[in-house]
Amino acid sequence: MVTTGITGAAAAAGTQNRENTxxxxxxxxxxxxxxxxxxxxxxxxxxxxxxxTGQMITQMALFTLLEQVIKVQQDLxxxxxxxxxxxxxxxxxxxxxxxxxxxxxxxxxxxxxxFRGAQPLLxxxxxxFPYAALVKVEGRPDExx
Length: 145
Hints:
Oligomer: single chain
Number of strands: 5
Structural class: alpha+beta
Largest sheet: 5 strands, antiparallel
């Protein structure tokens, strides 16, 4: 393996990755990992004899594993979003308590549910609140419907 090419690619990839502060706080992101792996493969000389078949198989397995992990993460995010949508719809005509942006408690029936962005919005007393602001739900679904 040629280490100087990897070091240069790693420095470039690291510089790009620092722009995303949330990802840099959580450790090596999948983009950085892929950039490093691709750089390593790009700078290898297949005729030098330094790379054996086992290492190449390991690298391909890492690509496949990373692909599967990303797919599982996306599936989990989609399931979470679907659960939030379903939960928000079940709140129609039910009395809820929510926290507004200042932290004040707002109470009233949910008169509408809208879907914009990453989470549903509940309309209470004519104002929209994010589903995450929900603090309490009163009554059972069959009581009000």
